[in-house]
Amino acid sequence: MDNTGYCGESFNSLQSGTSDEDLVEIAGATLDFSSTDDVPPLDRDYGSGVSYGAGEGPNGIPKLMDLLDEPVPGVGTYEDFNTIDWVREKSKDRDRHREIAIKSKESTWALLKRISDAFSGWLLMLLVGLMSGALAGGIDISAHWMTDLKEGVCLNGFWFNHEHCCWNSNETTFQERDKCPKWKSWAELIVGTNSGPFAYIMNYLMYVSWALLFSFLAVSLVRAFAPYACGSGIPEIKTILSGFIIRGYLGKWTLMIKTITLVLAVSSGLSLGKEGPLVHVACCCANILCHLFTKYRRNEAKRREVLSAAAAVGVSVAFGAPIGGVLFSLEEVSYYFPLKTLWRSFFAALVAAFTLRSINPFGNSRLVLFYVEFHSPWHLLELIPFILLGIFGGIWGAFFIRANIWWCRRRKTTRLGHYPVLEVLVVTAVTAVLAFPNSYTRMSTSELISELFNDCGLLDSSQLCNYSNVSVTKSSSDALPDRPAGPDVYTAMWQLSLALIFKMLITVVTFGMKLPSGLFIPSMAVGAIAGRLLGVGMEQLAYYHHDWVIFRGWCSPGADCITPGLYAMVGATACLGGVTRMTVSLVVIMFELTGGLEYIVPLMAATMTSKWVADALGREGIYEAHIRLNGYPFLESKEEFSHKTLAMDVMRPRRSDPPLSVITQDGMNVEEVESLIAETSYSGFPVVVSHESQRLVGFVQRRDLVISIDNARQRQEGVVSASRIFFTEYTPPQPPNSPPPLKLRGIMDLSPFTVTDHTAMDIVVDIFRKLGLRQCLVTHNGRLLGIITKKDILKHMAQMANRDPDSILFN
């Protein structure tokens, strides 16, 4: 995946990849979706109808083309797997705003265009929210139905899931509300009965068969049509928002395949969730809709502002938490997040949540399956078990990251990575075979979390709520007093203990396979199981030993002291925090899930404890670890640079390297420049006064240089290899018979960022982080010495941390 540049390539070969969704490879064939290009096609004959008299002006003097006069198609765009120039993009946007403001004073029509331009951002946010909310609703409904399809089918209509099927039945009793005549298990349909060993085996086989079919379809579709649709997508979204370009990652095919395969993957019963991939789906929607608006289509920095808002939309529809989504985007994924983006993110998240609420995918007027309300207050001494859950979450998070990265690295470096379909089928088979006997692993992970969060009431028929009958006086707060656990509760504890071990191990190998896989829900499930086990233990301790010092004074007999569901929620928060290292946004998301302000302190205590413990065992969250594993050029703002090195220690060329490749401002011809481009793979070249003086003039991008030379050949007659190239403001007189020269000053950056050779590297790193630079030139007394790129900095940081510097693959 090294960037080999455009060595010897023609200008026309650069037109592919001008949009995030132009070309998508499908099993050896190429489909063209270039109708929504970022820029017009580059092989158009722009010189038709224009004659320069064989390269001469009116008086026979060679006519000089100035590329400042007209914009050249393709100049200012970027190659695939390269980083954008944030400074240049923001400068372009400021120039565009200035031009619109000046023109708006000249006519009413221009004023209306200015108003339309200002309103377009809000309109785009509205469309992103509507589209993402609608897709999320469809995914929720489809996944719910297909998950139930593994166990049976509704006779009233195969499109009804179990719950909806029984709602429509008049013969369903409240005590057996999960059983209704219209819902038939596969054993009932095939062998006529649902009891006995043969019926159990038949249900078992059908469960495993459906799981294998769903996962096979998912991995096959991903592999054949959209390889970028696999995984969570959040590591790549973080990298893209930092300015990196991955063509096709947010395109039409990726959106289509990810939406379909996400439903299949979740329905297969694998230990994965849909919440992370929903962020990717929302960003795909935003990227596609950006092509409807010129200012977002042609400016990579502006587009990333929209993608930041889309990340908030993804979390909003995943958890029904608009505010938490905005904070998630701000805290976890966004690189550049101005105040304007904050407002628009909030608006888009609100629209998406409203759209999902209108669809009502779960039929309970809630946006998620595991919405819960608690009624009992918590006591200060309960902070001790809450902090213990935080410690567990931090240890689990650190263990999971190390184990998962080790497994993913094995997948990359061994033959295991050559058989993605087989790997998915084997993991699915193992998951289904081990999950079916245990009712808590057989149900979908979202249903499991809902069951664990549940605050037991009088009418609950769950095993976890099957306490021994004691005289119950219903209080005004709907809370039940602590009661002794019945035999079913103890059975459920054993099953949950086995489910905890199973989920902890199987999630390690599942996350990172070649199908859509989120990590939020599996991590929450691990924490919720641990929390519920601890909560029931504390509840029974309080019931049988209410006279102990720790319970005396606040837990009297007959009182509702302990809420096991709250412990499950705190545990889920702790484990998710340990894996992702989220803090503020995670607490707000969980707060929006419960709708109770009084539980913020337990959530905060568990989240901070989890982060501290996990950070003590390893500094990286799961997404940062996967970014580093894939070699993406992501400069983490949380990582401190504490080494005492200078710019001269990091810059290229080093002492043993050949001299820096440069272009002189007026001393080179087309052939020499094209030869330099063919012999090197650099993404740009410094422009100097002369090879002897090495006085810096500016910097020119490789892509812009190739495009401009080829464009000049098309538009300006007489341009040959001997034509001289000028980057100067004024061009000296040319000999009478010389070929027409090229003036390329318009594509040169006249104010490249420079530092001196004795600048401390911690300052250079801060400049790169805060300004989003691609490269920085190093000078000494005004003379050019070398260049530092983002890749050089990342390699240097890896070397300082005793990591492999060659793991950084891209610039």
TrEMBL record:
> Keyword set for this entry?
Antiport, ATP-binding, CBS domain, Chloride, Endosome, Ion transport, Membrane, Nucleotide-binding, Repeat, Transmembrane, Transmembrane helix, Transport
Q: Which SMART domains match?
A: CBS
Give the GO cellular component terms, alphabetically.
early endosome; endosome membrane; Golgi apparatus; plasma membrane; synaptic vesicle
Query: Where is the CBS domain positioned along the sequence?
Result: 651-717, 748-805
Task: State its location(s).
Answer: Endosome membrane; Membrane
Q: Which residues cross the membrane?
A: 119-139, 204-229, 250-272, 278-294, 306-330, 380-401, 421-440, 492-513, 519-538
Against InterPro entries, the record matches this protein to:
CBS_dom (IPR000644), CBS_dom_sf (IPR046342), Cl-channel_core (IPR014743), ClC (IPR001807)
Q: Which Pfam families match?
A: CBS, Voltage_CLC
Major localization class = membrane
Q: Which GO terms describe its molecular function?
A: antiporter activity; ATP binding; voltage-gated chloride channel activity
Bilayer topology term: Multi-pass membrane protein
Name the family the entry cites: Belongs to the chloride channel (TC 2.A.49) family.
Kindly provide the name given to this protein in its UniProt entry: Chloride channel protein
Q: Which organism is it from?
A: Danio rerio (Zebrafish)
Q: What is the lineage of its organism?
A: Eukaryota, Metazoa, Chordata, Craniata, Vertebrata
Gene encoding it?
clcn5a
